[in-house]
Amino acid sequence: MSAPLVLGNDLADKVTMDAVWPILSNREALAINEAWVGDAGVLLKQSAANVSMANCSWFDGNGCEHPSWMVWKKQLNASSVALLLMNNAETAQDVAVTWRDDLPPGALTCPCAVRDVHAHRDLGVHADGFTAAGLGAHDSAFLVVTSAGGGAEAGGGGAAGGGAGAVEAS
After folding, report:
1. Which of 61, 64, 85, 62 is nearest to 73 (CA)?
2. Based on the structure, what is the number of domains in the chain?
3. Angle at the Cα of 13 from the Cα atoms of 138 and 140, rounded to 5 degrees
4. pTM confidence score
5. Where does residue 4 rank: exposed (0-12), middle (13-18), buried (19+ CB within 10 A)?
């Protein structure tokens, strides 16, 4: 396992649990968390601009600064990586990754198949990269990217519901 799953909410709060359960029970996301090939995940790139976020400190109410957007990567196997594209801004924005410029050499051989982990659907084969177009404020795109010769799922898919909104590729 790459990281423990830690819940910071009241487990007895049915409204909150109903809202987060599709995310917590997403079998594709859990398979990505459990995959271990020596890579727990790394920050691949981030925006130069920061945004202020309230309520992000456990120690005080002062808030904190985070990049407007971030892209995280976790190698899953020789032909697949998981990518988390995050929009921390108050407005929608495009968050993009290019295979050649952003991924480490040898991480993948592209064109690559892209799968939306939240929506449990394939987004097609992309030759040069992927853009989460108009990614909503404080939303994310959770993707599995696989060299075109391999399968596009990390862990066989799942029947659980999605998390964030559907991703629109461009």
Report:
1. 85
2. 1
3. 15
4. 0.81
5. exposed
For tokens 């790459």, what's the residue? 2
Per the domain annotation, does 47 fall within a domain?
yes
Q: Which residue has the tokens 């456990």?
A: 58
Centre a 10 Å sphere on the Cβ of residue 63 and count the other Cβ atoms it contains. Answer: 12
SS3 category, 143: strand
Domain that holds residue 79: 14-51+66-147
CATH of the domain at 74: 2.60.40.1180
Neighbours of 25 (CB within 10 A): 14
pLDDT digit string (tens) for 80-130? 999 999 999 999 999 999 999 999 888 899 999 999 999 999 999 999 999
